[in-house]
């Protein structure tokens, strides 16, 4: 990540031309001011994404193809300099309310941003 002020988790998919595969680069960086529950949720989400892709890359790729066709996913990716791109994302206020009122579980099956396509 090129942003020195980065706080959160990241997942990079990097072509490995020698082995003709895609390498995962994952990690996180959090300050001490972040709520531990939020840090754990972000780490769990990152691990879950990694697990889903590792267990069933074909299905995840097929879902991604559909998302790209039916939404403006590619249009929401903005250049961030140094030939990197990033998705600019602001969490839905309802999701943030759910995170702050739930002890340790967020039921993502009930999360559906109003007026937004996935």
Q: Largest beta sheet, briefly?
A: 2 strands, antiparallel
Main-sheet strand order equals 1-2
* Fraction of helical residues: 25-40%
Cα distance, first to last residue?
25 Å
- Our estimate of the beta-strand percent is 15-25%
Can you give the mean pLDDT?
A: 77
**DSSP strand count:** 4
Uncertain segments of ≥5 residues (pLDDT<50)?
Answer: 111-118
Give the assembly state of these chains: single chain
CA-based gyration radius: 16 Å
Mass-distribution shape = globular
Question: What is the H-and-E element order?
Answer: EEHHEEH
What's the helix count? Answer: 3
**How many domain units?**
1
Structure at a glance:
The chain has 118 residues and is an alpha+beta fold. The chain has helices spanning 36-55, 57-70, 93-101; strands at 8-16, 21-29, 77-81, 84-87.
Protein described:
The chain has helices at 36-55, 57-70, 93-101; strands at 8-16, 21-29, 77-81, 84-87. It is of the alpha+beta class. It has one domain. The strands form two sheets. Strands 1-2 form a two-stranded antiparallel ribbon. The chain has a two-stranded antiparallel ribbon with strand order 3-4. Helix 1 packs across helix 2 (57-70). It is globular.
Topology of this protein?
Layout: E1 8-16, E2 21-29, H1 36-55, H2 57-70, E3 77-81, E4 84-87, H3 93-101
Antiparallel strand pairs: 1-2, 3-4
Keywords:
118 residues, alpha+beta, two-stranded antiparallel sheet, disordered C terminus
